[in-house]
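Dataset card, provenance and construction

Sequences and ligand SMILES were collected as paired inputs. For each pair, a complete structure of the chain with the small molecule in place was predicted and serialized as structure tokens. The example below shows a pair involving magnesium ion. Curators did not alter the output after generation; any descriptive sentences attached to a record were derived from the structure itself.
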Amino acid sequence: MTRFLWPRSLGGRTALVLLVSLTLVQVAGLAIHAFDRTDALRFAQLRNIAVRAISIYRTVALADPDSRDEVVQAIDAREGAVVRLSDAPPVSTIPPAYPELQRILRVNMQLVPMRPADRPRDYVWLGGAAAGRLMIGMRLPDGTWVNVTVPMPRVRWLLSGTFLVAFLVMTVAAAGLTLWAVRRLTAPVATLAAAAERLGRDLNAPPLPEDGPAELATAAAAFNIMAARMRRLLADRNFMLAAIGHDLRTPITRLKLRAEFIEDEELRRKSLADLDELEAMVSATLAFGRDTLSDEALASIDLAELLRTLLDEAADAWPDAAERLAYAGPDHLTVGARPIALKRALTNLVGNAVKYGGGARLTLAAHDRMATVLVDDDGPGIPPEEAERVFQPFVRLEASRNRETGGVGLGLTIARNILRAHGGDVAIAARPGGGTRATATLPR
Ligand SMILES: Nc1ncnc2c1ncn2[C@@H]1O[C@H](COP(=O)(O)OP(=O)(O)O)[C@@H](O)[C@H]1O
Ligand SMILES: [Mg+2]
């Protein structure tokens, strides 16, 4: 309910505030117009009544005193007003007309041309708009009162049809314009949010256009600078990694040549093994730098298809485990990713499952905005306290210290790096029933 009344989006809120203000202003305008119109109508009505009253008075005043009664009757019938001649001013239960009304009547009566001597000696006013009629008593020079009662139609509050139509058209147009302007003005904010979201997945996303209103152009420029700095930082890091890896290779090669001359066979074997390991680590480091220096372009790929391919390749590489490779999930699921990098990340997870767990069961699931890949195996599992540590570079658990199983401890580091660069992540944990589960997520 509150969500409906107070929308969450900036555009919605701005539009709401503007529309409510617009409505208030329009209602106020409408009221002012209605009051004004009522006043003007009332004024015209009173002037009309005043002129009529005084002309009746004039007719009576100028008539021969003997024929006054006939004159009065004739007027009575003609004017739609009740005219009575009396010795006294009108008395009535209806309240006296309010002063403003009296003033208007008096002023208008002065406008009728008449000899000052013929003008009424005295006035009495009774009734007003509320009473529905007006009684005016005017004293003739001879002391007789001419008492006129005229109906006073109510001034209708209702507005004319054309006005209402014009008013509606105006309101709708203003509201439409407001919505359009709000949408236009707040659109860049959404663009900025989308760009920030996108940068999380793709550092090489094209820069934001730095146009539009000044504040937003500044924000876009700041955002572009930030993105550029992040790119440079990452590039520097990877460049350094590659340089170190490269420069270590030459001395290792020299050492290996020299180690060949070690007399003691046991010592020579161990030294060469260590140097081999060192070389493998350097190669892996170089590969790591290469992998994460991701200028590979984002593409739409079928994740389900990719996972099945990985299993095929795993079956070729480890025929013994072919029985224990399985895929469950949709036939097709498209995600935006860097194909080679993503394949490397998932290959590492599948490779681990096969090497340390003897097989891999892949489960693909699509959620609202994420796709998850579960890589399950029935191996020894991972102690909870090691679950984060295995993602650190060169960390290998004691049980897998055996170099025969393969890597140097960079597989998970690389996998996490790649998935995080996509806006996803990977975690690893022991499954309650035994075995390990690696959970990779990827935005769709
Ligand atoms: N599925 C798994 N089951 C048991 N242990 C695992 C599994 N995956 C990874 N590990 C442990 O995490 C360590 C780090 O993995 P990784 O980074 O891929 O390096 P590497 O495979 O080169 O040893 C492995 O040495 C292994 O001890
Ligand atoms: Mg590995």
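Derived descriptions for this record:
The chain has three domains: 2-151, 202-295, 296-443.
The domain at 2-151 is CATH 3.30.450 (Beta-Lactamase).
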